Amino acid sequence: MDRPVKKQWLEPFREHAELEAQEYEASFEPAVPRRTALNRLKRLREGGYVELRGQGRSLPITRLPSSSCWSPSRRPPSTGAPFSTCTPCDLLSDPSAEGALRTEPVGIGRSSYLPPAIPALIETLFNTILVKAGKIRDPFEQAFFAMVHLPYLQPFLDGNKRVSRLAANIPLFRRNLAPLSFVDVPEADYTDGMLAIYELNDTTILREVFLQAYRRSAKRYTVIRGAMGDPDSFRVRYRQAITEQVAEIIRARCGRSDAVAHLRRWVEESVVEDDRKRFVAAAEETLAGIHEGNFARYRIRPSEFEAWKEVWSAPGTSASDSSTAH
7-97: which CATH number, 1.10.760, 2.40.300, 2.60.120, 1.10.10? Predict the structure, then answer.
């Protein structure tokens, strides 16, 4: 379902139909962090309330006519942009906190430690963490740095430890190393390690947990890689393009013949000649394998999937044929 948009996010446009991003950021009382304002703009754009043109803080933002009749009792208009109902952001009770640094105090269970509560300080410390992490060359040190400092700062309203464990994998992926998983690590060990950091600024326990988790992850990853074999280099190279074209075909409710025609037209302009036939075949194979359990990875709504599946399941029927029949 579409994520809700709050009426006060449109208040800055009450007197001015067009604002710059920096003017929008400065229009809230009390003031909100820059990231929060930009997140609100993103949600307004996705909901079809404003139009953003250009990049940077000076980009102009124009209120669309549909936004003038907005009311809290009415759902935001759909723009056809894909929404995922399975993202971690949907775990937050306050939609405005999604993707934004927190603006309110938080506490730590079983700990007397209180993370910083001033929004400006949180943003400064968060940026400092990013800069310092970027200067670390060793991928394992960089991973451990993220695991320690993100939960200690608590930059987000919730999910900070989960974010830190995901972030720890970024430097490992960049170096083509085995990923880090905590699947079989006792929760008590991880909790004790974090509490030692909160209460004593001691990383010893968490360091041991990190090493133990990575040794097990690396062994498990080696076994899985051996069983699965090497990935298809062609699909890896064109993964993003295949995903985008498959999603476009589903949203357009293309039947089999229309899908092939669409792919052939697209590869003529976007894929080198030697790879065109193989790209079309790979995309067709991907389309044939889409079902209720995996369509969400293509950022497709359930209604879009059901409408496309009805057309796709009728061999030789194109989207235009289906619409004519109705």
Answer: 1.10.10
